[in-house]
Design a protein that fits this description.
By secondary structure, the protein is of the alpha+beta class. The protein folds into three domains: about 10-40; about 55-150, Glutamine synthetase, N-terminal domain (Ubiquitin-like (UB roll), Roll), CATH 3.10.20; about 175-185 and about 270-510, Creatine Kinase, Chain A, domain 2 (2-Layer Sandwich), CATH 3.30.590.10. It has helices at about 20-40, 55-60, 90-95, 155-170, 240-250, 280-300, 345-355, 355-365, 370, 420-435, 455, 465-475, 480, 490-505, 510-515; strands at about 65-75, 80-85, 100, 115-130, 135-145, 150, 175-185, 190-195, 200-205, 255-260, 270-275, 275-280, 305, 320-325, 330, 380-385, 390-395, 410. The strands form three sheets. Strands 7, 10, 11, 12, 13, 14, 15, 16, 17 and 18 form a ten-stranded mixed sheet that branches. Strands 1, 2, 3, 4, 5 and 6 form a six-stranded mixed sheet that branches. Strands 8-9 form a two-stranded antiparallel ribbon. The structure holds magnesium ion.
Length: about 525
């Protein structure tokens, strides 16, 4: 067996006899990435505050950008893009909008009404470091060219309307969101679903199933046991450098990071937490966050997924979302009620809990989401609130007594939620709770894991499937539509397309069904 290489070995340091082309290529890639990062590492706040097209253009020119990348979000929450030479970015052109065909975008227009316009939001500008050609990337609003109005089915339109609705309500003038998006970093993923066969296989050097694997240089052990990834140091944690690089790239893109660490599951589960921000910029940042996480991983020869349950038998991946309302610069959620909350915060919780099942259709939008929401893996399936209980759908963090830090943490969503829709829907549920003074019931500090089945049966639960969540949304969507934040047309289309997903998934035989039923 060859001896292991010291860390930071470069391709040219590779000893004779260790000229494995794949290893060499991997080291070269890492070197290139390090060199690229070193070029700009002197400035963590690499993206200055930009609010006009002229400022964005100045920033782009200063850094030698030649490409303008126009990005926007489809209904499932994937960032889409189209590019132009940078000279196409002018105040006039940006105000008029850049045309694209909306009929090919998931959840957008029908073919007969396909022409749409992208209006770049200069506040979202950042220099994309993943492209060889220096590129200024911006997130765009989508408008309907005939009416020159924000397009109804664009998620960013819905987020804008939720913010307008909050301001009109007089209840608060700012809603802060802090999502904790988790994800897995794998070394490979393979899958296929056909008529007569179906399989998936993910792999990670850290995976507990690899204790017996013959590895290059010898298997050195330190594989992370199930549910023990939170959070031993290296050599068990092999992804610190990768996460640190993601963080540096995020900060350079103007996303301030508070903390990052390995998460509980084996096989490279990770979490990076952003500093909270207002609803719209936070949703924009989450799109960038995913883009950067995925692309840094790719440079390291790894791959990131935000799927809630890519591994059977270990913790799934969630996206707890911290939220608070403010007015005139003052926090509204701190008070003298339970866990230092205000009455308003309790009503907000009341709203989240009352609409939780309908919210699940938006905050947990895939069939895979419900494989996370099962007992036994810290999943927040109990629709209760608590300052302590981690299986409660709502937790009140108690780390700080500072009123400015007082917030509600809704733990049900996962990172496949489209952030524009998810944050908007949660805000509307909370505001409905405040307006109707909804009582969240009594808090539950008793350990849910120690409850008897009879006690557990009294607690309402998150939906058991996407189908149930869609039923709940169908029965309870007025809090989303009555002030026109979500249009009825959007909700109807959303439910229809998600029902098609459910129907397709449930019609496919699975490998485990063969194990259970083939010889029955
Ligand atoms: Mg976490």
């Amino acid at each position: 067996m060859p001896t292991p290489l010291p860390s930071h070995t470069t391709a040219k340091d590779l000893p004779a006899g260790r000229q494995d082309p794949m290893l060499r290529e991997k080291l070269l890639k890492e070197e290139m990435l390090r060199a690229k990062i070193a070029e700009v590492k002197d400035d963590l706040s690499f993206t200055p505050k930009i609010s006009t097209v002229t400022e964005a253009l100045g920033f782009a020119t200063k850094h030698g950008a030649t490409v303008l990348d126009l990005t926007f979000v489809d209904v499932p929450g994937t960032l889409q893009h189209t590019s132009k030479p940078l000279h196409e970015l002018t105040e006039d052109a940006a105000e008029g909008g850049y045309g694209f065909d909306g009929s090919s975008i998931r959840g957008y227009q029908q073919i007969e009404e396909s022409d749409m316009l992208l209006i770049p939001d200069p506040a979202t500008a950042f220099l994309d470091t993943f492209t060889v050609e220096p590129t200024l990337s911006v997130i765009c609003d989508v408008i309907d060219p005939t009416k020159r109005k924000l397009y109804d089915r664009s998620p960013r339109t819905i987020a804008r309307r939720a913010v307008d609705f909050l301001e009109r309500s007089g209840i608060a003038d700012a809603a802060f969101f802090g999502p904790e998006a988790e994800f897995f970093i794998f070394d490979s993923v393979r899958y296929k679903s056909g008529q007569n066969s179906s399989f998936y296989e993910v792999d990670s050097n850290e995976g507990i199933w690899n204790t017996d694997k013959l590895e290059e240089g010898g298997n050195l052990g330190y594989k992370i046991r199930n549910k023990e990834g939170y959070f031993p140091v290296s050599p068990a944690d092999t992804q610190q450098e990768l996460r640190a690089t993601m963080v540096r790239e995020m900060e350079r893109a103007g996303i301030k990071i508070e903390t990052f660490h390995h998460e509980v599951a084996t096989a490279g589960q990770a979490e990076i937490d952003m500093e909270r921000d207002l609803l719209l910029p936070m949703a924009d940042k989450l799109m960038r966050y995913k883009y950067i996480a995925r692309n840094v991983a790719r440079k390291f020869g790894k791959t990131v997924t935000f799927m809630p349950k890519p591994l059977w038998g270990d913790n799934g991946t969630g996206m707890h979302v911290h939220q608070s309302l403010w007015k005139d610069g003052k926090p509204l959620f701190a008070g003298s009620e339970y866990a230092g909350l205000s009455k308003m915060a309790l009503h907000y919780i009341g709203g989240l809990l009352a609409h939780a099942k309908a919210l699940a259709a938006i905050c947990n939008p895939t069939t895979n989401s419900y494989k996370r929401l099962v007992p036994g893996f810290e999943a927040p399936i109990n629709l209760i609130y608590s300052a302590r209980n981690r299986s409660a759908a709502i937790r009140i963090p108690m780390y700080s007594n500072n009123p400015k830090a007082k917030r509600v943490e809704f733990r049900m969503p996962d990172a496949l939620a489209n952030p524009y829709l998810c944050f908007a829907a949660m805000l509307l549920a909370g505001l409905d709770g405040i307006k109707r003074k909804l009582d969240p019931g009594k808090h539950t500090d008793k350990n849910v894991y120690h409850m008897t089945p009879a006690e557990l049966a009294k607690i309402p639960h998150a939906p058991g499937s996407l189908s149930e969540a869609l039923d709940a949304l169908e029965a309870d969507s007025e809090f989303l539509t009555k002030d026109g934040v979500f249009s009825k047309d959007f909700i109807a289309n959303y439910i229809e397309s998600k029902r098609a997903e459910v129907s397709d998934e449930s019609s496919r035989p699975t490998a485990s069904e063969f194990g259970r039923y083939f010889d029955a």
